[in-house]
Design brief:
This protein has 398 residues and is of the alpha+beta class. The chain contains seven helices and 19 strands.
Length: 398
């Protein structure tokens, strides 16, 4: 066989393979470029939403928490504005703004949006509505789910008391407790003490305070119990599980919404199986360090695969402005009780704040009239004493 014949055979076999490989590589590169483009659109929508969901409120001394804005202002989060802004950004970038059918169809590929607020999470997901005889499916914001945990104080046979997770049905239950956590140690606590009747409980009382506030945290075991060891156990337990409770609440809400999206998507002819994306515990812990927004976008065809992404944005807010207490020490420049806006204040560093409880408050009005406890030295002994009335520090000028 001539060399020219072999060459023709080689070209006839190899050339189609080269063409197929070239097409596949080009297709893969184009799909990757498209995926990167989609990711940029989604990230941009999340950042737009987190920027727009901040709303400045007037000063209100009755607000016990909020986010720092301009001086003497509080900033709240508007979840509906966040959701609307997110979708409007997607509509504009996908060039479907104003096309109602296309907008509602795109919403099906966003199984869940979560607004992570200071004291709870709000999720937006697809719901089915009937209006004027016409059925429609679109995203709707659900009520806020608070970061809640329940436990029971029970009396043991030996007369001691124990903390039990959940609402115990034991006849030895003394009090039922529910704690709503926040992104710092500020909590809302509800307690229902056992009444006079058999297995009956009084109406719950509610109080908000800092978990580290020894002036108030005795409420955590009930007003009729004096047991420092039990109180330490409860405080330590609540401190250690706070982040886990927040993460668990967020994950449950997002998982439910994502799985629930499958039924709505199938009715619209979408065969993709929506599911909660794999997320490490460290990522979830990082996502609850500040107020933010999480959005899942799944099922959009990208080449020979489907987009499955989680986008997260934070509002770049700090938690509420804190005013820190100190009492005079031998090194202090000022012989008065002070509150400071910054722990780096030189006077804060010099003054006494040993075992100060509460360590700080959130408004100047509260700081001026707050009663706090602090460890001081008197006649060679360390004593816990109460101090009332604090003045603004002349160094950091809160």
């Amino acid at each position: 066989m001539k060399i020219t014949d072999l060459s023709l055979i080689f070209i006839g076999v190899i050339l189609p393979l080269i063409i197929v490989v070239y097409i596949n590589v080009s297709f893969t590169i184009k799909a990757q470029e498209q995926e990167v483009y989609y990711q940029q659109i989604i990230d941009s929508a999340v950042q737009d939403a987190t920027n727009e969901m901040k709303q400045v409120e007037n000063e209100d001394s009755s607000i016990d928490y909020g986010y720092s804005g301009t001086e003497n202002k509080k900033i709240s989060v508007n979840a509906q504005i966040a959701v609307d802004t997110f979708f409007n950004s997607l509509y504009n970038n996908f060039d479907i703004k104003g096309n109602d059918a296309a907008e509602k169809y795109l919403q099906l590929f966003v199984p869940a949006i979560a607004i992570l607020d200071y004291d709870g999470v709000q999720v937006s997901s697809i719901e089915r509505f009937t209006s004027g005889g016409t059925e429609t499916m679109q995203h709707a914001l659900k009520p806020k789910r608070f970061y809640s945990y329940t436990y029971t104080i029970v009396k043991n046979v030996d007369g001691s008391y124990s903390m039990v997770d959940g609402l115990s049905t034991s006849n030895n239950a003394v009090s039922y407790h529910e704690v709503d956590f926040t992104m710092d140690d500020y909590i809302t606590h509800r307690v229902s003490n056992k009444g006079l009747g058999y297995n009956s409980f009084d109406e719950a009382t509610t109080k908000s305070f800092y978990l580290s506030d020894t002036n108030n945290n005795s409420e955590l075991i009930g007003s009729d119990i004096t047991d420092p060891l039990l109180l330490d156990e409860v405080v330590n337990k609540l401190s250690s599980i706070r982040r886990d409770i927040i993460v668990d609440t967020v994950v449950k809400e997002l998982s439910y919404a994502t799985n629930n999206n499958n039924a709505y998507a199938r009715s619209a002819g979408i065969t993709y199986s929506f599911s909660f994306p794999t997320t490490s515990q460290e990522d979830m812990y990082a996502s609850i360090e500040n107020v933010g927004l999480v959005a899942f976008v799944q099922g959009i065809s990208v080449g020979n695969k489907y987009l499955n992404t989680k986008a997260f944005g934070i509002t770049r807010l700090t938690l509420a402005t804190r005013y820190y207490f100190t009492v005079p020490s031998a090194d202090s420049k000022f012989n008065i009780n002070l509150y400071h806006k910054d722990k780096n204040c030189p006077e804060y560093q010099l003054a006494n704040k040993e075992k100060m409880t509460p360590e700080y408050t959130l408004t100047k009005q509260q700081a001026a009239s707050m009663t706090v406890k602090c460890q001081v030295e008197e006649n060679g002994s360390l004593l816990m004493k109460e101090f009332r009335g604090f003045y603004p520090c002349k160094v950091c000028n809160p």
